[in-house]
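Appendix B, example 12.
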Amino acid sequence: MNTIGRVGSACRRSVRCRLDDVAAERRARWSMRRASSVKVTTTSSRRCALGSRALRRCARAARGETIARRVAMSAERAPSVAERLQPRVDACNEITAADYAKFIPFVVDGQSVGALQPWFAEELLEACGPGTLRQDEGGAVVFVDGLDTPDARSEALKPGLLALRDNGTITGWRDEIFPVTMGYGVPPLLRIERAAASLLGVRAYGVHVNGFVTLPNGEKELWVGKRAKNKQTFPSKLDHLVAGGLPDGMPPSECVVKECAEEASVPEHLARNAKAVNVVSYSMNYNGCCKRDVLFCYDLELPLDFVPTPDDGEVESFERFPIAKVLDVMMTTEDFKPNCCLVIIDFCVRHGYLTPDEPGYVRLVQSLRVGND
């Protein structure tokens, strides 16, 4: 090869080398940039992950603070009207399962119809004698064999109840006969004097009438009676327009008409407008007795110009209360006869004066009907 050829070949090799070096340098720089990018991306991902966890922790903390604030606000808020009325209902439902266990069962025809305080069970057995009552193997008070009809049991028990009246054990004798049953409408197992019902711990039935007027603006006012000072039970307490125990064999609607005439001088043509609207029930500790009552509730709208007048001496006076005043008296005092509060609360629920917007509404309404048929 001549000199020129050799020189040209060397130049080409030199150029190729430089080109290869440039390419290698470029590849090296690209690799470095890629590695740096991967590192930055990984670092950023780690930072994002750490940031996301921090954000989640912050969100949880914020939710916790919100819940805590709500709990604190709930604890600090004033009790609702429903919650302030609840003690009035609870006062009529003091008998618990543990309390029942302390009573002596009164069993008739194999069915537990009553609950006797131990001291009264002893007095009842003594007053009636072994020819009428005895205690069975389990300690329950039962009728002796042979007294197997309602009439036979009623007649056999009557002398013992009269003896307990005469010695002062049974007070407030009324000469009103109540049926002893296992449920409303069920044939009676026997019949007793009304004044003995609480001591025997049997179910008793009654009627309560919400007498009210509707004002021109649509608001309602309730007629409230004040019981006479000489009443055997709950003297001077505030009461309904009329109320009364349901005697044996008398339909509730007829009892309403009778009580309207006797207690408030409401004429029959008005009294028969009373509408049956609901029922309330309770198991109350009344002077140590198990008072188990079922009350049929009636609404009676009266003319604005009608004024009830006491007639039988059981009521001292009548006054018309705005519903707001009725609620305030129940919330702040114990002036109302206890079971009247249940019937009035039911009235307020049905007429929209108490609504589910009230905290405590569900518990209040449910507790108006406890344990009795």
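The longest helix spans residues 3-76. The chain has eleven helices and 13 strands.
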